[in-house]
């Protein structure tokens, strides 16, 4: 993959255009109104807009914006066999994680048709030849919306059942030509009590996957809200031993707290550093992004750094997301060597 030094990229999701959010809502409530060709046309147009927004902003490495997904990972449960939906306990009041869809396991978990990522990648590649990465849901995070029922004793057993499903999906992507995969495991940042077990889960999840693997660990962003104590320190030095090539961590929303942990990330592992706060509607000036990036480079050399927002933009209004990403790119260019 031919990328400049200090590549600017996104984490994964992009803000839904207003018309597409409306379409998804209507299609969920009145599925009889739309045929498969209608759905494919809308999805393809949304992906095309997400790609265009990122490229216009100047991103060096892009995604499909996760236009096919629902709230980051909720759409993946549609591909799992052996679960049933649970009633939503709270529908009114301030939004929070307890309002997410949840499911109960009623049989051993399977995904006979995969998780849909192969189709996402094929669609993206039909639209652009730009350098891309594909975000993949991690098994521990996927387990967070599942109850074991009478099939699994606890979240650990559910995670064990999901590991081969996720691993198989990653192998399929590599066979299709994907060379950069982002494993999304924010739940580990919110549950840091068993770091050695976490490292074992990651190692088995990525086993045999021949691609650059970045692991994204934020503190949650459902409806723009965090869900855990916002500190990576309990996970270090363990996290720096994970069997991945890069860690994608959030710093902007925490005013760059704990950036000194970057010195514990030893070569050849890299860091995708979050320098733009997706929970804030304020647009960071390029000069501030550049200042934050120079601070990062005190602790880790530029050859091992990618620059990202803290998290995906799915919970951010599109007009804000486009301005934030463009400003982030401009800030990176203020620091990037001119000959790179």
Describe the structure.
Helix 2 runs parallel beside helix 9 (318-335). 34% of the residues lie in helices and 14% in strands. It is built from nine helices and nine strands. The strands form two sheets. A six-stranded parallel sheet has the order 3-5-6-7-8-9. It has a three-stranded mixed sheet with strand order 1-2-4. The protein has helices spanning 18-29, 36-57, 117-127, 139-142, 155-175, 186-190, 195-205, 286-296, 318-335, and strands spanning 81-85, 103-110, 134-137, 146-147, 180-184, 212-217, 246-250, 270-276, 305-309. The model has no long low-confidence stretch (mean pLDDT 93). The protein is α/β, with parallel strands linked by helices and 340 residues long. The chain has a single domain, classed as TIM Barrel.
